Amino acid sequence: MALYEGIALIQEKQAVVLDLGTDYTKFGFTGEAAPRCIVRSEFWSAAERRVRRLHDYATPDELYDNLVHMLHLLYFRHVLVNPKERKVVVVESLLTPTLFRETLAKVLFTHYEVSGVIWADSPRLCALTLGTPAALVINIGAKEAEVAAVVHSCVVLQALVAQPLGAHAVHAELARLLDEDNGATLDLPDDVIEDIKVKTCFVSPLERALQWGSESPPRAARSVRYSCGARGSVTVTGRARELAAEPLFARDHELASLPDAVLQSLARCPRDARRALAANVVLAGGGAALPGLRARLAAELRRLRAQPPYAERLHVDEFRFHEPPGHGNALAWLGGAVLGASDAGAARALAREQYAREPRLRDWVCLLDNTPPHHPHRAYLDI
Amino acid sequence: MAYLTQPDYVKYICSCGQLKPITSLYFCRHCLKIRCGFCICHEVDSHYCANCLENMPSSEARLKKNRCSSCFDCPSCFHTLSTRATTQQRQVLQDPAAGGDTKVESKQPKKMYYLSCFNCRWTSRDVGIPDQPVASGGWPERTNPHAARVNQLIDYYKAIAQQEKQEKIERERKKFNIRGKYITLTDKTGLTGAMARNIAGLPSSESSSSAIANFVPSVATAEVDELPEDIFTKEVNLNQITSMPQRLASPDWQPVSVSRLHPLAKLLSVKRSQRCRACDHNLTKPEYNPGSIKFKIELLAYYHVPEVKIISHEPVKPGEKTALFLKLTNPTGHEMQLRLLQPEDIPPPEEKEEPKSIDKSLERSLVLEKDTTAFKAIERQPNISATSRVTSPGVTLTLAQRDDAAEYDDDAQHDTNDIILWRKSNKLGVRLELDTSAEAVGGSPARALVALQYSYRNTVPPAPSAAACRDHTLYTTLLLDLGTVSSN
Ligand SMILES: [Zn+2]
Ligand SMILES: [Zn+2]
Ligand SMILES: [Zn+2]
Ligand SMILES: [Zn+2]
Question: What is the pTM of this model?
Fold first, then answer.
């Protein structure tokens, strides 16, 4: 009983937490406050003599190879531990493609012989870092912004809203604005665009954003000369600095902006949870680090709440924001580190023996996994 | 042959199906098979600092988070920082009570140290880190600003898990009591749950409930940080803002401003040993000394498998026979018999195990630590599409053993014939014919497949139980890159 479990816990190797993002991979140990490394999700391919991105693959075999190379790099260059007989907490999005999950499981269990894998979705992990019963998690990743409501450690699945409004949308808009302002097709590489964004861009407050759309635009912020080495230098105008993040807030007839996504997610939540959720908003993901983004989002939410179609449906009076105990880009990772350190996580691990017996992963979209135990259909599912 | 800057013209097919040049292949002397970095098991052997070449035991490395305590990297350009010394006139104010009536002011030159980057001129003084009186170590260590909160969270969730488990046990016991009214095991032994937890060194349930009671969830606020007012008017100084790599180099802090950069303790490196997955024997094992680049065990294919190099070849034309000149080398200390074959002539590897049902083999793999299923899962069909094949000359070539002294003999022996161009100690130049299929499209890459059959003498002392079989006939398949198919 408790006695034996105590001994087992001492002997167990410290588990690692893995978050393979589109642009950046976060990797480190459970129980620590920050990942050991945050590196680009890419590796040097000796056979092709070029840097390969982890998420660029055409076939399952290619993905398998990518994962093998990436994990080798992470284990032996950054974290410096043996993967063998060590548990892994995998931080994943609820929308991770099945092929990716299954290939990752295969690589971890057969290639690296890890002893167990705990699969955890990022909204729940972000909520875990707050300790509140309800949380509305807005995760702005590289490609997508995902809004998920977490109530008592359960994701409200019907309220999951995702829009392609990640860091890449900001990068594309910034590249377009730079081309426009410099009067040339600059074709800057991604890392330069990212660097310009990180160093110069901010999200303008709501009043100014509205002014930009009107007849009399406000006085732009100072422009910056950005030198790109051999390419010469680029002028980053105040307009480009301020408007690069506007695609996140651009409303069209489909109401596909970031604040709309948040309000739609709230509207799909159970009525009695909405107020609690709106009072516990947390922003996560590397894309949320832009200065001014939180303030702008708060202002937009407060403005749109009172407008149709949300005014008569939502009945949410206040939005409150959390200051999570970690950087946004590693917040889901931190949740994984907390989960893995408490016994609750270890109990949920998929053990290697179990995987060898039945190589199948639990998935929230699968009826086998989401039918409650006493549901009348359950009997047909248990074979 | 493998080149540093050019593509690999000759690739061997590893036993797992990967195509690799001979320099990145291993040879397991126990399985007598070629292995590669993809199908072997890598293990951390020892930790060391690549800068000061100091070994660090694994337990200490874990404690120090895999960072060297005396070497630092520049947080700005990631170059290694150097320690610079300055002499500082330090005024020592002696305590009047101890030193007598008069205040004695003594000037004492003292050496103080700071860190400086020779590459970008960053110094630890730039960010206000005080100089240190000792040359190595002593630099202020920082802890993550959220560490305390994260520990609270962990304690909280641990307590919750503990409580849930306790409740579950309680429920089970109640069920048990109602059913049979037996005394439970803990009651019988006089060991209560609390005592058992105490013995196991776990926090008692009281403290776990206090961890839950004392936990304060994160508090959300309605106010959010607005942009600083001056952002619309202030000049941006790009040199004062950190880049993404600079931020991510210290994941705990991710400083935005250059003035918050701190020296990065150097990340250790590891020496890896490599193991055959099929038999668990070591393929490479490095020497412990970090300064040494030698290996205790080094089973590289380069020392065991005949090496093939392309000397030259005629342009490959569709539907035609062209000449191909190869150089074959015997790297072993024993005479080698070598035949060139067609890939399909390789006899299938004899299965030592009788075929079993999948369930049985799986069960076996669960019982035994060493299972071959893992290796089987990694294997895949090699991706080879060849336009040409090398016609097998049908003769057995004999290659002399490697003789380092013979390297100095200049004249090649000329016992030449149709196939053998020249012979020089353990090397052989051969002339072969290349048969290209008529379907080959001009301009497409020309590749030729050839299989080798070679004799191999195993020098591993045989296990007492195993039959002492020293001479083996082994096979390997190669893919030759012959440029492109010429179009005319
Ligand atoms: Zn291999
Ligand atoms: Zn060092
Ligand atoms: Zn530097
Ligand atoms: Zn072996």
Answer: 0.88
